[in-house]
C-alpha cells in the first residue's frame, strides 16, 4: 500500500466520525493552569493556544524543562529531539535548517523562523535566506516549537518544510524572580565557559520587565597542520533580551521586546579530505588529508554576525473576538574573510546587511464555538546589500589588487491576506480550512568589476501565490486525536545575479517553487497518562525546486525540475513510575528527485536530496529521586543517531556519500530546595567523528590543485565535551 493510499484511508476514518454523538465543543480550549510536561503542553501552531495533543498537524515542542535538563541551548543540541529536523552547519554561525528532507542546496530558506510573533531571516534568495536562522541561546525560553509540513497558510513564504518558533518567557507582574547560571567545559585540552542570567521585575500590579543575558565562549578543536596551530576554530556568542509587558485592563495586553545577539568566530570547523587530483572526487571512505580534526590554510578566516530584533505585540480581547497586532523590525549584519588562495592567490571578504520590517494584524473568534474563524493581513519590506571582494595577496596580480568586486542590492516587498475556518460537526469531529493569497515585488541591482571589466544590471521580478490547508480531525476520546492534513507552500522566485564575462548565460529571473503535502497522524495518551505518543506519515510533491548553479564562477539561482519526499515520524514519552521518564523519537525520510535537474547541477531522477538522513532518532532516559528533605538528585543518558546522507548536487564530483554516526550524552546533578542546581555533563562521550556537511575549499593548503580542482572539506560536530553547570534561582 503506497503512502497516498494510507493517507486517504486515515482521512476517510476521520470523516466517518460525523456519526459520533455530541458532547462539548470546548475540547481545544487551553488549560487555565500551567501545562504539565508531555501532551498537555500548549502550542500556537494555529496562531492560538491549544494543547499539543489536539493540533491537527505534526508539532514537536522542546520545553523549558527539557532544555535545562539536557543543556540543549543551541540548534546542535536540540535538533536531535525533533524527528524530521536536520541541521546543516556549513560554517560557524551559518546554519541551514531542513524539515522532512526539503533541501536542494539553494540560497532560499525552506524553513521559516519566528521569535514569538516576529518573523526573522529573509524570504529572498538574494539575501542568502537559507543561512540566516538565528541560533538564539535557549536559556529562559518557554519552549522551542517546530511545526512540520508546509505552513504557507498562516506563516507565508519560505515555510515549505515547516516552521521553527522560539517562544520566550513573558514578563510576570505577579512576583520578582531571578536566575543565574555559570558553566565551565572542556573540549580536548581547550577550556570554554558560559555565563547567563535572568531577572523579572514587577512594576506595580499590571506591568513587568524581564531581562535575559548570556555570554558563551566555545573552545576550538580543529588544528592547522600546515601552520602548526592548535584549536583554531573558537567562537563567542553574546546575547541580550529585554521584554516589557503591560496589562492596563484584563482584556488588553501590550508587550515590547528587543533582542540583540553578537557572534564572533575565527577559523572553521572543517577537516580537509584526500581527493583524486584528476577528478576532484574525495577518496572513499572519506579520509583526512592531514589527520583527524585537521585542516590546512594560508590564512585564518573569521565571521562576525550581529542580529537585532524589535517587536511590539498588542492583544485585545473584544469578547466576541481577539484582535492581535504584531509589528517587528529586524536587522542582520555579517562580515567574513575566507581563504581563496587557490583562486589567483587571493582572499575574499564579504559583508551582508539585511533589514526586515513586518506588520501582521489578525482577528480571531473565541475558542469553543461551533464555527471558529481567523482572518488577517500581513505586510513585509526587506532590503539587502551584499558586497564581495576578491583581493590579491601577491603574484600574479600583486598584493592588494582588487581582482573582483561584486555588489548586489535588493528589495523584497510582500502583501498577503489569510484566513481559517474550523467547523465542529460534532464534539468529536471538525474540519479546518485555510487559505492565503500573497503577492511580492522584488528589485535588484548588480554591479560587478573583474579586473576593470564592469557590468551594471537592474532586475525586477514579481509573482503571486495562493496557498491552502485542509485538516479533518477526529477525537474518539479526550486522550486521542486522529487527523489528516493537505497543505501547500511556496518559496518566492526573484531576479538573478549576473556575470561580467558571460552575462547572457545567466537567466535574468528564476521562478517560485511550491509543494503540496499529504499527512496523516495520531496523537494519544494511554495508561492513565503515563504514556504519550504521536506518529505520522507524510508524502510531499515539490515543483520547480530552486538550486544554485555555478555559471562562470558566479553562483546563480535556477529551477531544477521536481522532487518528492515521503516518510514516517514518531515520538513518545513514558513515565512508568514517579521520577523515571523515558522519551524517544525516530524519523524515516526518503527524499529524491523525480526529474533531472538543470544540466549545470548534474542531478538525475532518483538521486537523493542533499544532507537528509534516511533514518534519524534519539532515546533519552532520566531519573530523579529524593536524597533528603529538599535535596533531590537526577541523572540521565541520551543516545542519538544520524543515518547516511549524500552531499549537494555537483556536475564535477557528483553526490558524495556521508556515513552515519551516533552520539552518547550523560548528565547528573543535584537540586537543593529548587533554588540551587549543580550539574555535570558529558556530550559526545564516544568522541564520534560526525560529519554535518561537505563542501569545497579554495585554500592553496587545502588539498586542491587549482580553482577547477578545489579541495574538499567536511564540517565535523563538536568532539567530546565535559563540563559542570551551577544554577541559582530566586
What does it look like?
- With 730 residues, the protein is mainly beta.
- Helices cover 4% and strands 58% of the residues.
- It has 4 helices and 42 strands.
- It has a 22-stranded antiparallel β-barrel. It has a 5-stranded mixed β-sheet with strand order 3-8-9-6-7. Strands 16-41-40 form a 3-stranded antiparallel β-sheet, with no helix packed on it.
- The chain is globular and about 70 Å long.
Question: What is the secondary structure topology, with strand pairs?
Answer:
Layout: H1 3-15, E1 42-43, E2 50-51, E3 59-63, H2 64-69, H3 75-78, E4 85-91, E5 94-99, E6 111-115, E7 118-120, E8 141-148, H4 152-155, E9 162-168, E10 177-187, E11 190-203, E12 207-218, E13 223-224, E14 235-249, E15 252-266, E16 270-272, E17 294-295, E18 302-317, E19 322-340, E20 346-364, E21 371-392, E22 402-424, E23 429-450, E24 453-477, E25 480-491, E26 494-495, E27 509-510, E28 513-526, E29 531-543, E30 546-551, E31 554-559, E32 562-577, E33 580-593, E34 615-628, E35 631-642, E36 645-646, E37 657-658, E38 661-672, E39 676-683, E40 691-697, E41 711-716, E42 721-729
Parallel strand pairs: 6-9, 13-17
Antiparallel strand pairs: 1-2, 3-8, 4-5, 6-7, 8-9, 10-11, 10-42, 11-12, 12-14, 14-15, 15-18, 16-41, 18-19, 19-20, 20-21, 21-22, 22-23, 23-24, 24-25, 25-28, 26-27, 28-29, 29-32, 30-31, 32-33, 33-34, 34-35, 35-38, 36-37, 38-39, 39-42, 40-41
Amino acid at each position: 500500500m503506497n503512502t497516498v493510499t494510507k493517507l486517504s484511508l486515515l482521512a476517510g476514518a476521520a470523516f466517518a466520525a460525523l456519526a459520533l454523538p455530541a458532547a462539548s465543543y470546548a475540547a481545544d480550549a487551553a488549560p487555565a493552569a500551567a501545562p504539565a510536561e508531555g501532551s498537555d503542553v500548549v502550542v500556537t501552531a494555529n496562531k492560538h493556544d491549544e494543547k499539543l495533543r489536539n493540533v491537527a498537524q505534526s508539532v514537536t515542542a522542546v520545553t523549558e524543562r527539557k532544555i535545562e535538563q539536557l543543556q540543549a541551548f543551541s540548534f546542535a543540541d536540540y535538533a536531535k529531539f525533533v524527528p524530521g529536523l536536520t541541521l546543516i552547519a556549513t560554517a560557524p554561525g551559518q546554519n541551514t535548517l531542513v524539515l522532512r528532507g526539503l533541501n536542494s542546496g539553494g540560497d532560499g530558506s525552506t524553513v521559516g523562523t519566528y521569535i514569538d510573533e516576529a518573523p526573522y531571516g529573509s524570504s529572498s534568495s538574494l539575501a542568502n535566506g537559507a543561512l540566516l536562522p538565528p541560533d538564539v541561546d535557549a536559556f529562559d525560553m518557554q519552549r522551542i516549537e517546530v511545526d512540520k509540513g508546509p505552513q504557507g497558510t498562516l506563516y507565508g513564504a519560505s515555510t515549505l518544510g515547516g516552521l521553527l518558533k522560539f517562544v520566550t518567557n513573558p514578563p510576570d507582574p505577579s512576583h520578582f524572580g531571578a536566575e543565574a547560571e555559570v558553566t565551565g567545559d572542556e573540549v580536548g585540552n581547550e577550556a570554554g565557559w558560559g555565563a547567563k542570567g535572568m531577572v523579572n521585575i514587577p512594576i506595580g500590579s499590571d506591568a513587568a520587565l524581564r531581562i535575559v543575558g548570556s555570554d558563551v565562549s566555545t573552545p576550538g578543536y580543529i588544528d592547522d597542520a600546515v601552520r602548526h596551530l592548535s584549536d583554531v576554530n573558537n567562537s563567542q556568542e553574546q546575547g541580550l533580551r529585554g521584554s516589557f509587558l503591560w496589562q492596563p485592563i484584563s482584556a488588553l495586553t501590550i508587550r515590547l521586546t528587543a533582542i540583540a545577539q553578537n557572534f564572533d568566530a575565527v577559523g572553521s570547523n572543517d577537516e580537509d579530505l584526500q581527493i583524486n587530483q584528476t577528478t576532484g572526487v574525495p577518496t572513499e571512505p572519506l579520509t583526512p588529508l592531514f589527520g583527524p580534526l585537521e585542516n590546512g590554510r594560508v590564512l585564518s578566516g573569521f565571521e562576525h554576525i550581529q542580529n537585532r530584533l524589535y517587536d511590539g505585540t498588542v492583544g485585545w480581547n473584544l469578547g466576541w473576538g481577539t484582535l492581535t497586532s504584531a509589528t517587528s523590525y529586524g536587522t542582520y549584519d555579517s562580515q567574513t574573510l575566507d581563504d581563496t588562495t587557490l583562486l589567483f592567490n587571493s582572499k575574499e571578504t564579504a559583508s551582508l546587511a539585511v533589514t526586515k520590517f513586518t506588520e501582521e494584524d489578525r482577528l480571531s473568534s473565541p475558542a469553543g464555538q461551533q464555527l471558529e474563524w481567523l482572518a488577517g493581513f500581513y505586510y513585509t519590506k526587506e532590503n539587502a546589500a551584499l558586497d564581495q571582494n576578491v583581493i590579491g595577496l601577491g603574484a600574479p596580480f600583486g598584493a592588494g589588487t582588487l581582482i573582483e568586486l561584486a555588489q548586489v542590492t535588493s528589495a523584497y516587498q510582500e502583501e498577503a491576506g489569510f484566513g481559517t475556518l474550523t467547523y465542529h460537526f460534532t464534539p468529536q469531529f471538525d474540519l479546518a480550512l485555510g487559505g492565503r493569497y500573497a503577492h511580492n515585488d522584488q528589485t535588484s541591482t548588480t554591479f560587478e568589476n573583474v579586473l576593470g571589466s564592469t557590468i551594471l544590471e537592474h532586475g525586477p521580478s514579481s509573482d503571486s501565490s495562493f496557498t491552502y490547508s485542509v485538516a479533518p480531525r477526529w477525537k474518539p476520546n479526550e486522550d486521542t486525536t486522529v487527523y489528516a492534513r493537505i497543505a501547500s507552500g511556496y518559496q518566492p522566485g526573484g531576479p538573478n545575479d549576473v556575470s561580467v564575462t558571460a552575462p547572457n548565460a545567466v537567466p535574468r529571473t528564476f521562478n517560485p517553487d511550491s509543494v503540496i503535502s499529504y499527512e496523516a497522524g495520531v496523537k494519544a495518551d494511554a495508561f492513565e497518562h503515563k504514556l504519550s505518543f504521536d506518529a505520522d506519515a507524510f508524502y510531499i510533491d515539490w515543483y520547480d525546486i530552486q538550486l544554485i548553479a555555478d555559471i562562470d564562477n558566479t553562483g546563480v539561482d535556477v529551477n531544477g525540475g521536481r522532487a518528492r519526499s515521503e516518510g514516517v515520524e514518531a515520538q513518545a514519552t513514558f513515565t512508568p513510575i514517579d521520577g523515571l521518564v523515558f522519551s524517544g523519537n525516530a524519523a524515516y525520510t526518503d527524499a529524491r528527485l523525480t526529474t533531472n535537474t538543470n544540466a549545470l547541477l548534474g542531478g538525475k531522477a532518483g538521486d537523493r536530496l542533499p544532507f537528509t538522513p534516511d533514518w534519524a532518532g534519539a532515546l533519552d532516559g532520566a531519573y530523579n529521586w529524593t536524597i533528603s528533605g529538599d535535596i533531590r538528585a537526577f541523572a540521565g543518558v541520551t543516545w542519538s543517531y544520524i543515518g547516511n546522507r549524500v552531499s549537494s548536487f555537483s556536475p564535477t564530483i557528483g553526490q558524495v556519500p556521508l556515513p552515519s554516526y551516533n552520539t552518547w550524552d550523560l548528565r547528573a546533578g543535584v537540586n537543593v530546595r529548587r533554588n540551587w542546581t549543580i550539574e555535570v555533563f558529558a556530550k559526545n562521550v564516544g568522541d564520534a567523528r560526525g560529519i554535518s556537511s561537505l563542501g569545497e575549499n579554495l585554500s592553496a593548503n587545502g588539498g586542491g590543485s587549482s580553482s577547477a580542482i578545489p579541495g574538499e572539506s567536511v564540517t565535523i560536530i563538536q568532539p567530546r565535551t565535559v563540563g559542570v553547570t551551577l544554577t541559582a534561582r530566586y
